[in-house]
Model the fold of this input.
Amino acid sequence: MENKRFWMLMTQYLSGEATVEEIEELNEKIESNKSYGQYFERATKTWNSKTSGEFNADEISSAKQKFLRKLALADREPDSFQGKNKLNRWLKIAASIAVIALISIVGIKYLPQSEEELQIVKAEAGSRQEFILPDGTHVWLNSSSTLSYNKKTYNKTQRKVELSGEAFFEVQRNEMKSFIVSSGDIRTVVLGTSFNVKSYPNDLLNSVSVEEGKVVVFTSQNESNKILLQKDDEVIYDSKLDTFSKRENIDTKQRHAWREGKIVFDNIPLNEALKVLARKFNVTFEIKNKKSENCLIKGDFQSESLQTIMNMLSATIGFEHQYHQDLILIKGESGCEKFKGNK
Done:
């Protein structure tokens, strides 16, 4: 019922027919449910780039009927919208429905789920989580990461999880149901394999690497451009450039060593390395000298303290660092090899 009400409020809002009370109700739903907020942003962005005139009568009618059927509200007819120009108002509402139907791909395929339907697992900063999904898939969740799935439909109609952060999966093989990881713009699809997905919200570079088996990777905007990864392959996605780059024969055992609490920096820029340390030790970094951001960092750490790691990096690169409670300032000039972009 909550989802149905949200979508009716959305169509009223997009068509300009929402009352002040309905707008307030819509705002309350958006503030109380992260999924609603994400979908609202997506819908309004698409709607603002279109006008009702871009849809012909057949498209609007078809989208309207599909939308209402999906909501089990087919008995709600245009006459229920009272006003002087009921037909024009309904066309505007139907047009907004058409946009929602389009961005949902098929009707309301990605209708936001209620909090009761979602199973959410979180690994706070400085911690890791290890657990088993209902289908037997083994998951390791890295620090500052969240994984969620629908308790009602998982392993019944599909095997789909949402990931924000980093996780390693040992997927229980099922030829009839693909295992799908949705992480930001990236979609990773497998039948049964072992692989790692790294996709933190504020990271420019996201990655998928395979330890065993095969996976297919693509973006939500371009499903036709599929990247096939096999054992010891990795793909890096640049969210700014919207580009993939594939690497072969990487040391996945070393790359996925975070599951044992290890930190491995394999020639990554300093600013990316500091993000890893920030999540693990729950601190914040600020780089005063922007020239240092792209200094390449290489090193392995097991149980060293943050202070020990910072002293080693400082000595290697040549920067200074100062502690201000949970804030660490990176200062001074550095002489180092620079990261020249993803190749």
Summary: The helical segments are 2-14, 20-32, 34-48, 57-70, 86-103, 252-255, 270-281, 306-317. Residues 71-87, 102-110 have pLDDT under 50 and may be disordered. The longest helix spans residues 86-103.
